[in-house]
From TrEMBL:
UniProt binding sites for ATP: G86, Q87, T88, S89, S90, G91, K92, T93
Protein name stated in the entry: Kinesin-like protein
Major subcellular location class: cytoplasm
Pfam family for this entry, one: Kinesin
Gene3D superfamilies named among the record's database cross-references: Kinesin motor domain (3.40.850.10)
Keywords for the protein's UniProt record, in alphabetical order: ATP-binding, Coiled coil, Cytoplasm, Cytoskeleton, Microtubule, Motor protein, Nucleotide-binding
Organism the protein comes from: Oreochromis aureus
Underlying gene: KIF5A
GO biological process assignments: anterograde axonal transport of mitochondrion; establishment or maintenance of microtubule cytoskeleton polarity; female gamete generation; nuclear migration; synaptic vesicle transport
Keyword Nucleus on entry: no
């Protein structure tokens, strides 16, 4: 396994949900035109991504095409991130979580939980694994959650409870707890609108008991709260304040992506929000990152969908430098000292 640094672009996948009931009743037009597997045309302009999923794409197609590889990467000692971005009610939580306990309706997170253990059970018996998972469902509102840096200057979340797990079922228990704690509210756009970003972290450490070789990989799975126009969602009072916080946090993310896309790595405003600090390694750092941009096909959301597509195009230009997280054995350390 090569542990040399390698550059790779952020992978950007675009997924359109079907028209929903209220859009059909309103008589909204279906505006995207799909061309091949990687292009969508909106308002006469073509947007090209690593993959475009039309409205009839299944959860299994999305996972096997774009997320399955990241399990192998993380078990190979790389860091990985998958996150979903898009306006409110565009299908982000459906893509990331889906129906957690339905084999067909499951999204990326529960499929990854199953896949990790399938791979581990098929691997060399000399490998010993320690898997910790943590979930934080209210990144914007929790005051006890802070971002620090480890000895390698890699950001990590302090205050996010992590738990050792030994099966997919135990992972699902943690996900269920996190989902129960996630703050949602009813808006005009979405009956179950997520009012904060949700982060699910899988931390895998492995050791070859014969060679004492140690590898580690972290996987961040992030469901961002949706950007929203207050005039459309009808947000009031506390929900309006949350909307402002969400939009401010997403604006900070947009600024980071713009700075990286323009190649100004020395002045990237990661510290402008908690979420951009957490995603610092995912955006321009040591991480294999996949971004899902989730879009509405409705003419009513034309402006927001174009904005999301442009956001995805900027993100596609960002390059990360990835390397295997390899811990030297005592013998290798001794050799290096001599």
């Amino acid at each position: 396994m090569a542990d040399a640094n390698a550059e790779c672009n952020i992978k950007v996948l675009c997924r359109f949900r079907p028209l929903n009931q209220s859009e059909i009743i309103r008589g909204d037009k279906f505006i995207p035109i799909f061309q091949g597997e990687d292009t969508v045309i909106l308002g006469g302009k073509a947007y090209v991504f690593d993959r475009v999923f039309p409205t009839n794409s299944t959860q299994e197609q999305v996972y096997s095409t774009c997320a399955k590889q990241i399990v192998k990467d993380v078990l190979g000692g790389y860091n990985g991130t998958i996150f979903a971005y898009g306006q409110t009610s565009s299908g982000k939580t459906h893509t990331m979580e889906g129906n957690l306990h339905d084999p067909q309706g499951m999204g990326i997170i529960p499929r990854i939980a199953e896949d990790i253990f399938e791979h581990i059970f098929a691997m060399d018996e000399n490998l010993e694994f320690h898997i910790k998972v943590g979930v934080d469902s209210d990144v914007l509102t929790k005051t006890n959650l802070s971002v620090h840096e480890d000895k390698h200057r890699v950001p990590y979340v302090k205050g996010c409870t992590e738990r050792f797990v030994t099966s997919p079922e135990e992972v699902m228990d943690v996900i269920d707890e996190g989902k129960a704690n996630r703050h949602v509210a009813v808006t005009n756009m979405n009956e179950h609108s997520s009012r904060s970003h949700s982060i699910f972290l899988i931390n895998i450490k492995q050791e070859n008991v014969e060679t004492e070789q140690k590898l580690s990989g972290k996987l961040y799975l992030v469901d961002l709260a949706g950007s929203e126009k207050v005039s459309k969602t009808g947000a009031e009072g506390a929900v309006l304040d949350e909307a402002k916080n969400i939009n401010k946090s997403l604006s900070a993310l947009g600024n980071v992506i713009s700075a990286l896309a323009e190649g100004t790595k020395s002045h990237v405003p990661y510290r402008d929000s908690k979420m951009t600090r957490i995603l610092q390694d995912s955006l321009g750092g040591n991480c294999r990152t996949t971004m899902f941009i989730c879009c509405s096909p409705s003419s009513y959301n034309d402006t927001e969908t174009k904005s999301t597509l442009m956001f995805g195009q900027r993100a596609k230009t960002i390059r990360n430098t990835v390397s295997v997280n390899l811990e030297l054995t005592a013998e290798q350390n001794k050799k290096n000292e001599n």
